[in-house]
Amino acid sequence: MVGVRPGASSGILLGAVTLPSLLVSRLIQILRAFSIQEVGIEEIEYLKLQFWAASASCFMVLVFLCIIGQCQEKGSRSNRSLFCWNANFSFICVTLLIELGLVSLAWKLYAGWPVALMSLWVLCHGVAAVKLIQKILNIFPACASIGESLLVTTGLVVYFGDMLAYTAAKIPSYLDSSRALLVLYGIKRSEISTIIQGMIFGLLLFPVFFKSVLHLWGYLARLGSNGDIRNREMRRCYIFYASLMFMLAMVVPSWMQLVHPFHVHPLLWIFHFVFSEPLKSLTLCTYWLVVIYFSVRRFYNISKNSKTERILLRKYYHLMAVSIFVPALIFQPRFLDLAFGAALAIFLLLEIIRIWKVWPLGHLVHQFMNAFTDHRDSDLLIVSHFSLLLGCALPIWLSSGFTDRPLAPFAGILSLGIGDTMASMVGHKYGVLRWSKTGKKTIEGTAAGITSVFAACLALLPLLAATGYIFTMQWFSLVVAVTISGLLEAYTAQLDNAFIPLVFYSLLCL
């Protein structure tokens, strides 16, 4: 299929079940919390709606891919556009039929418009997911498998669908039917989650905003006919940075203040939060900067002056993530939540600068990032650092509310920083027995990964108990979670940084 990373398996099954399974495990955990009156019923209803939205997104994308596959088999190069039009038309017909069926069923069962509105709201996620995965595969061809694109698409649609409903819930509405849906999004959000959501959305929307500003400026000032190429490029860079400052300092904070009662500007709130405990925060930041500086400098020199394989060189960053995130997660979890959001924002911004070659950082960022890329990256889009960061951050963000499984926030750090690293290093150096004739992963590496994660859990539990965590551990469940996630790492040919932490987190929550 066009747009798929060369040599990658489809990964459709894994991409389609990961996010719905994650939401099911989270829902089970919230039900346990509801039984002891730790959360309200609105949390359960909220997660149910999120689950159906994710399921609808995956289902509609799978329907669309099936239709496209059939059309490509029947069509030839000469009439491919006709078959693509037929595929879109067929998908629209299927979508309308499903929507009418669900709305009619909801109306008959519940005799109320709010339930029908919720059904439409869920199916809108499916339509948005289809449109988004088309854009991803067209704009970033050969950068991901279908499964990876499906996971990213579903995650973005659910996350920003939540943002849209959360925004609408804060706008005065005179329609009772709308308020019946939006009341689910009246759940109290923390300032940190609001800041992260707004910042990520602003940066993802920024390329569209910048292109619009650039077209408007070119129309007004006629940049295309004045000055040499050097001057036009410099003006383009100035417009880029000015547009970026406007987006991050004006547009995004305005949305934050609309949906959350910030008593000061959100940027000032961040400043006050960081310096509310200056000794702890500044000490942690200093420790991070020292570790990152010396580690990155050392790894970059190794990448230029040695024949170490890229895949092993990148595992050093996994070990660095363990040394950075574990102390912060134990002693400063809320500050780590904000730091993850800041790091993700920086990564997004640097990737935009790299792709558009914005002066003066574009070339330098590309040169640095290219030293650590492998077959899963391309010049068009480098995703490995995003997957590592999100693989460690998502379990922590998901656990920011109620959690009765103390190891669940560490799912990404343990599976990527410990398990994946040990599996690669041991398998590369000592592996003999391969899982398949065509694959590179070995039984020795998988055994080392599973054993190391279980040993890290045993070492981490007493430390958590000493810091005040009170919990009971189901050892059989822990062994099953570690083993299944380790075997999945050996089985899958997908970008495991994206899948393994979510699967491990789901199993730990159960």
What can you tell me about this protein's structure?
It is a multi-pass membrane protein. It is found in: Endoplasmic reticulum membrane. Belongs to the polyprenol kinase family. Its EC number is 2.7.1.108. The protein has 510 residues and is mainly α. The chain folds into 2 domains: 170 residues, no CATH class; 233 residues, no CATH class. The protein contains 18 helices and no strands. α1 runs antiparallel to α2 and α11 packs antiparallel against α15. The longest helix has 34 residues.
List keywords for this structure.
mainly alpha; 510 residues; 18 helices; 2 domains
Main sheet characteristics? none
Distance between the termini: 36 Å
Q: Which range does the strand content fall in?
A: under 5%
Low-confidence stretches: 76-83, 107-113
- Number of structural domains: 2
Percentage of residues in helical conformation: over 70%
- Structural class by secondary-structure content: mainly alpha
Order of helices and strands: HHHHHHHHHHHHHHHHHH
Number of strands: 0
What is Rg? 24 Å
Shape: globular
Q: DSSP helix count?
A: 18
**Mean pLDDT figure:** 78
